[in-house]
Amino acid sequence: MENEKPVNYKHNIHVYRDNGCTLCGSCKGLIKRVVLSVLLNEQVDKCCSVGVLVTDDFGIREYNRLYRGIDRATDVLSFPMQSFDTAGWNGHGKLEFDEETGVLPLGDIIISMESVRRQAVEYNNTIKYEAAYLIIHSVLHLLGYDHEKKSTEELMHKKTNLIMKETGFDI
């Protein structure tokens, strides 16, 4: 216990579920731990909040259709609430804090556990590994990383691998 890293509890990480998805305590804990690992890795020094909605393929298809105009299921969606001039915490522009709480809303993530399970089998990973990978990927999107931009694609991949290792999921 003496050599443990101090845990930063200042971030608000909320995990919700819909469409009758089951979410065990260890999965909820995993999601929170992974989100916190990304925030610590990126040295986010403001009290912030991240919402994670766990759903199934039907649910994520509806969100994808509603918010992106794409009528198909995907594994994960990210909805950033802050603007970044460059990828990463140090690239943030003007931050918009919640006036009532003083907390910085980074954004929301929606993840389909049905896709997570299917992809875990497809890529020969565990469900926890696949979920952690997708959550890390999504939090990096909330922090301005974008794999569709050549300038940050490689950096995003490196960061994901580093954080996977830090959270105990060696690639």
Question: Could you characterize what this model shows?
Answer:
The protein has 171 residues and is of the alpha/beta class. The chain has one domain (12-166): Collagenase (Catalytic Domain) (3-Layer(aba) Sandwich), CATH 3.40.390. The protein has 5 helices and 4 strands. A 4-stranded mixed β-sheet has the order 1-2-4-3. Helix 1 (25-41) links the parallel strand 1 and strand 2 (48-55).
- Mean pLDDT, rounded to whole units? 88
Molecular shape: globular
Helix content: 40-55%
Domain unit count: 1
**What is the architecture at the second tier of CATH?**
3-Layer(aba) Sandwich
Q: List the uncertain runs.
A: 1-9
Secondary-structure element pattern, one letter each: EHEHEEHHH
* Strand order, sheet with most strands: 1-2-4-3
CATH superfamily: Metalloproteases ("zincins"), catalytic domain
Radius of gyration: 16 Å
For the sheet with most strands, the description reads:
4 strands, mixed
- The proportion of residues in beta strands is 15-25%
CATH topology value: Collagenase (Catalytic Domain)
CATH class: Alpha Beta
Class of secondary structure makeup = alpha/beta
Tell me the distance between the termini: 27 Å
**DSSP strand tally:** 4
Total helical elements? 5
